[in-house]
Amino acid sequence: LEIKIKDHFISIDREPIAAASLAQVHKARLQNGEDVALKIQRPDIKETIEADIMVMKQIARSLEKHSANAKAFQPMRIVESFEQSIQEELQFLKEIEHMERFAKNFKDNEDIYVPKVYRELSSDRLICMEYIEGIKISEVEKLKALDIDCKMVAKVGVDLYMEQVLEHGFFHADPHPGNLFVLPDRDQICFLDYGMMGTLLPKDKELLS
After folding, report:
1. Do residues 72 and 63 touch, judged by C-beta distance below 8 A?
2. Rounded to two decimals, what is the model's pTM?
3. Active-site positions?
4. Which residues are CB-neighbours of 140 under 8 A, at least 6 positions away?
5. Which of 99, 98, 84, 91 is nearest to 126 (CA)?
6. Contact predicate 111/190, CB 8 Å
């Protein structure tokens, strides 16, 4: 970012609160006292992925050449599809655009919360966003302990997903429990990690409906 850290941050935790193959997340506090999450891309991960995909393509070509059974599954197309998906995940500025578009789509829906993004403290390898305190939707006992109706959470979650797919044609493509939080203080659901998003054309929305 070419900034002095102390001009913007009071602290940045050295231990990550979450870690995945492409990036890890650290909690931090801004000078204005707000808690944020820093999603930081791993060093040299792009080069590592490119090398791995090159090997995968060599294997896929070999399979297509020497095995009729394997060729029927179109391994090269599978690798190319994976390559496109993971390259998009590496573009953090694109992820920020996804978050902003998602927030705009749901600006009038009180059942969902989208974290605030700090563009001035983000780049193509770093996302600075609002830190979310919540409970994973899979942590049923914690939800019940707070007298949260799990059936209602499920209904709201499905309704929100149907709205993404059938109304907006722009949907979260990685909705595992680690990316879906219940916010007890707000009675809202929050989607996290907008690196993979799906889109639908109007005719596809009609067919699905």
Report:
1. no
2. 0.85
3. 174
4. 150
5. 91
6. no
